[in-house]
């Protein structure tokens, strides 16, 4: 029984097998926590300066195009030069921009435009770090441990998303913006330790210098790699029709009550689900049919999002509601059920991400792995923003409960059809990875 229980928990072998991976993972986790501190603090500081929610939302919008360009170019750099040096250089830019943000804040010189500019630099440099780091991991551990490494990444992201925003709010309230940015600067040094102690990681195979020809080479590979292409399409479908995050403030104010507290609970539910699914990810590493795993995980995700829409519909009908639902009179029953549905969605999304990440790292040749990660950055940054547009527009025209309800069923239908049209994806075997 004890052996069975241990088998259900996350596989920690990558941390024991490769000290280099363990240092990189620990450094990435701590720096990711610091990054969350800065992201939230910048939003709070922008609102304190402008008192304008549109100005706050423009932080993400302004950084989108530079992030996409940097992700693509960073992938080309990672496929042409020593990936350790590429990641170190990009991390140095992130470090310098965060340090400048701290200095400006301590000196009282911060402005709205400094916040925009440094946020753009941060997001662009981080995209390059991500592309290079993704291409490094398969060179540090055996291929059979890649699912475990992806699950450890889920633990890392779950922890940073759960703890980071809350800790940022407390730090800003207690010590101010300057100390919050300074703590991020301190935590970021752990990423340098993880990268600096790595051996050189030069790309293997034919090297294509960064530029248009490198981009074309990556595109030609993607056209031939149907398994990778299908997983991108599956992810875009899920993120476009299953991202109700932009509706949470209105849901907390109008449907479920509780105001900002409800918004925080619903947002955290995603991260809690991701964390728990990684914590109990032991069986995932023993699954060979990764394409089938992605399909089933995304269908569960769609079903959970649709169920969340049903919960909102029940709230609109007044089920389990106190006499006057509002900021101080939350519908605790439906908040709990809705949070549970979102936790299931977060867990399913994380399981899908583990399989997708493992497939990309195992099936994509080393010489092109950075460029494919650059394309993936475009997918994961663009999909949720399209999803925000879908959810916001449809909710404005109809009702708050319709976007998740309809979107969940669209995800189930489209993904089922897409995978059926590509039987090779469903038959993908982790022991014989093919792109």
Automatic annotation (TrEMBL):
GO MF: transmembrane transporter activity
Membrane topology category: Multi-pass membrane protein
UniProtKB keywords: Cell membrane, Membrane, Transmembrane, Transmembrane helix, Transport
Official protein name in the record: MFS transporter
SUPFAM superfamilies hit by this protein: MFS general substrate transporter (SSF103473)
GO cellular component: plasma membrane
Domain Major facilitator superfamily (MFS) profile: 221-435
Entry keyword Transport: yes
Transmembrane segments: 21-48, 54-74, 86-107, 148-173, 232-258, 264-285, 297-320, 332-355, 375-395, 401-421
InterPro entries per the UniProt record, alphabetical: MFS_dom (IPR020846), MFS_trans_sf (IPR036259), TM_effector (IPR010290)
Keyword Nucleotide-binding in annotation: no
Chief location: membrane
Leader sequence segment: none
PROSITE patterns, per the entry: MFS (PS50850)
CDD domains: MFS_MefA_like
């Amino acid at each position: 029984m004890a052996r069975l229980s241990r088998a259900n928990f996350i596989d920690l072998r990558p941390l024991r097998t490769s000290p280099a991976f363990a240092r990189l993972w620990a450094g990435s986790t701590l720096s990711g926590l610091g990054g969350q501190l800065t992201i939230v603090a910048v939003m709070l500081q922008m609102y304190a300066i402008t008192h304008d929610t549109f100005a706050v939302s423009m932080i993400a919008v302004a950084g989108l195009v530079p992030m996409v360009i940097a992700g693509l170019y960073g992938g080309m750099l990672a496929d042409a030069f020593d990936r350790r040096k590429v990641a170190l250089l990009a991390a140095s830019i992130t470090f310098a921009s965060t340090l400048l943000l701290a200095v400006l804040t301590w000196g009282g010189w911060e402005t709205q435009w400094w916040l925009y500019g440094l946020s753009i630099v941060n997001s662009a440099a981080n995209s390059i770090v991500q592309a290079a780091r993704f291409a490094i991991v398969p060179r540090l551990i055996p291929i059979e441990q890649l699912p475990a490494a992806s699950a450890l990444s889920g633990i890392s992201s779950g922890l940073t998303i759960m703890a980071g925003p809350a800790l940022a709010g407390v730090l800003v309230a207690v010590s101010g913006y300057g100390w919050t940015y300074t703590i991020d600067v301190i935590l970021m040094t752990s990423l340098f330790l993880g990268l600096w102690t790595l051996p050189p990681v030069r790309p293997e195979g034919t090297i294509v210098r960064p530029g248009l020809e490198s981009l074309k080479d990556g595109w030609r590979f993607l056209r031939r790699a149907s398994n990778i292409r299908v997983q991108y399409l599956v992810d875009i479908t899920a993120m476009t029709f299953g991202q109700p995050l932009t509706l949470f403030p209105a849901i907390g104010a109008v449907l479920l009550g509780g105001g900002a507290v409800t918004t925080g609970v619903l947002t955290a539910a995603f991260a809690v689900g991701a964390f728990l699914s990684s914590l109990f990810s032991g069986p995932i590493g023993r699954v060979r049919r990764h394409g089938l795993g992605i399909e089933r995980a995304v269908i569960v995700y769609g079903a959970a999002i649709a169920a969340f829409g049903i919960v909102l519909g029940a709230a609109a009908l007044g089920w389990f509601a106190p006499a006057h639902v509002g900021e101080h009179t939350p519908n605790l029953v439906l908040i709990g059920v809705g949070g549970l549905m979102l936790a299931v969605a977060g867990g399913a999304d994380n399981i899908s991400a583990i399989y997708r990440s493992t497939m990309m790292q195992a099936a994509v040749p080393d010489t092109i792995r950075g460029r494919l990660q650059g394309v993936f950055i475009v997918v994961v940054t663009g999909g949720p923003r399209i999803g925000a547009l879908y959810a916001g527009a449809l909710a404005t025209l109809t009702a708050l409960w319709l976007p998740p309800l309809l979107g969940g069923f669209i995800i189930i239908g489209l993904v089922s059809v897409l995978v059926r049209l590509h039987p090779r994806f469903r038959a993908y075997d982790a022991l014989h990875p093919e792109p």
